[in-house]
Design goal:
40% of the residues lie in helices and 12% in strands. It is of the alpha/beta class. It has a single domain, classed as 3-Layer(aba) Sandwich (Rossmann fold), CATH 3.40.50.970. Helix 3 packs across helix 9. The protein is globular and about 50 Å long. It starts with 13 loop residues before the first helix and ends with a helix. 47% of the residues are buried.
Length: 284
């Protein structure tokens, strides 16, 4: 097995990463077909960021998933793991045929990731709101162990309604955790409707700044902006939060205007439309 280390901030062509994002969307559709239900639009809003993290930003060693000096990535919005699994398989964390067992009885790949079953998964998810707190703990551990790994945590904007997130934000600012980087996938919509109607959490950046974080707000679908933000975040002298403005269901037109594809299943006609729209971009 290849024992190579994938270095941090390795060279990657933005156009290639854009195609990876659309490949993630296609794989999500394929895996939902196996499960007969799944989270399309929550993956589609962060697909560009998944691609940038795994194919450019993170320092990884797929042959040794518990390598102590790897960068950590925690997925607070764990229902988007269906878009993470194909990447982990392609990088060599586990056999690609595991994907064909997604959510089937006995499969290690569930709707939410289990760190005890999925190589490359740094923490489990289920109940929303815990992962930023865990990320604080990992960043503190790196400091105590004198290791230089970075801890990245992606959370959803709906997740910001959880009080534990703000306790973690306060602790990270207090301890000056410059090795902790957060990403808010601010797609503006959850299962119950628009985030501002369910629980208004704006202004996101100003709130994190009030807890002592540095922040940056970007278009989360602009690959150049994503790459620049990820590189910039690593230079902060305190915890850093990237507020990525995204669109739920991005990349499939009929999914972009409704919360109803947060969890669902594409019938044959809708699936054909969605796949054709994504494939057209891949073939361009």
């Amino acid at each position: 097995m290849d024992n190579a280390i994938l270095p941090r901030n390795r060279a990657a062509d933005p156009r290639m990463l854009e195609k990876k994002a659309d490949w993630i969307r296609l794989e999500t559709i394929r895996l939902v077909e196996i499960a007969k239900s799944g989270h399309y639009s929550s993956v589609f809003s962060c697909a560009e960021m998944f691609a940038a993290l795994y194919y450019h930003t993170l320092r990884l060693k797929p042959a040794d998933p518990r390598w102590p000096d790897r960068d950590r990535f925690l997925l607070g919005k764990g229902h988007a793991a269906i878009g993470q699994y194909p990447i982990l398989a392609e990088l060599g964390y586990f056999p690609e045929d595991w994907l064909d067992t997604y959510t089937r009885l006995g499969s290690p790949l569930g709707d939410h990731p289990d760190m005890n079953k999925v190589p490359g998964c740094d923490f489990s998810s289920g109940s929303i709101g815990h992962n930023l707190s865990v990320g604080v703990g990992m960043a503190l551990a790196a400091r105590l162990q004198q290791r230089d790994f970075l801890t990245w945590v992606m959370i959803g904007d709906g997740e910001l309604a959880e009080g534990q997130v703000w306790e973690a934000a306060m602790a990270a600012g207090h301890y000056g955790l410059s090795n902790l980087i957060g990403i808010v996938d601010a797609n503006g919509m959850g299962l119950d409707g628009n985030t501002e109607d369910v629980m208004n959490i704006e202004p996101i950046a100003a709130k994190f700044e009030s807890f002592g974080w540095s922040t940056n707000e970007i278009d989360g679908h602009d690959m150049q902006a994503v790459l620049a933000a990820f590189d910039r975040a690593q230079q902060s002298d305190r915890p850093h939060m990237i507020v990525a403005r995204t669109k739920k269901g991005k990349g499939v037109g009929f999914m972009e205007t409704t919360p109803y594809w947060h969890l669902g299943f594409l019938g044959p006609a809708d699936k054909a439309v969605a796949v054709a729209e994504i494939q057209e971009r891949l073939d361009a």
